[in-house]
Amino acid sequence: MSVRPIRLFGDPVLRTPALEVVDFDREIRTLVADLTETMLDAPGAGLAAPQIGVGLRVFTWHVDGLLGHLINPKLTLSSDTQDGEEGCLSLPGLSIDCVRAMSVVANGFNMHGDPVTIEGSELLARAIQHETDHLDGILFLDRLDREARREAMRTIRESDWFSADTQVRISPHGTNGLGI
């Protein structure tokens, strides 16, 4: 297990859809361990494999004392929504209100290849949706309305970590809704 560097906004891996995991081997178990350790060190409520430069559909979460991971997630979202503050380890210091589904049922696999179902609401639902978006090359900025996104981009450009050489790419997905 090791703490890995977190990729920041502008890194192309954050806009590249991740590949399905097909082999549940030692490499996947090491990836889950590294994601967990990196997320806890940051600290964060979740971390997806693309955020550490690995293009696989794997993420971890740590919400309300519950620590977990999910591989190859498929989500079913509730029709009721929540509007709340959201941040991202790949966008340090940025926190903006974002609309998400109030609850989610997530089906996928654990690191051993066993099928699992995770049901969550409020913050856990937000974290699962946020991390699944990362696996699809979507950032929570893509879910903001035009004015909020413009304000977020201004804040990002003024941040200490952002470089003028960073290539900013907006998602081609129509993501102003809750699902793709």
UniProtKB/TrEMBL annotation:
EC nos: 3.5.1.88
List of residues binding Fe cation: C88, H130, H134
Transmembrane segments: none
A GO BP entry: translation
Reaction equation(s) it catalyzes: N-terminal N-formyl-L-methionyl-[peptide] + H2O = N-terminal L-methionyl-[peptide] + formate
Coiled coil spans: none
Cofactor binding summary note: Binds 1 Fe(2+) ion.
Active site: residue positions: E131
GO MF term set: metal ion binding; peptide deformylase activity
Keywords: Hydrolase, Iron, Metal-binding, Protein biosynthesis
Pfam families reported for this sequence: Pep_deformylase (PF01327)
Cofactor(s) recorded in Swiss-Prot or TrEMBL: Fe(2+)
The UniProt record lists the keyword Transit peptide: no
Source domain of life: Bacteria
Enzyme class (EC, first level): hydrolase
Function statement: Removes the formyl group from the N-terminal Met of newly synthesized proteins. Requires at least a dipeptide for an efficient rate of reaction. N-terminal L-methionine is a prerequisite for activity but the enzyme has broad specificity at other positions.
Family per record: Belongs to the polypeptide deformylase family.
UniProt protein name: Peptide deformylase
Organism the protein comes from: Nocardioides marmoriginsengisoli
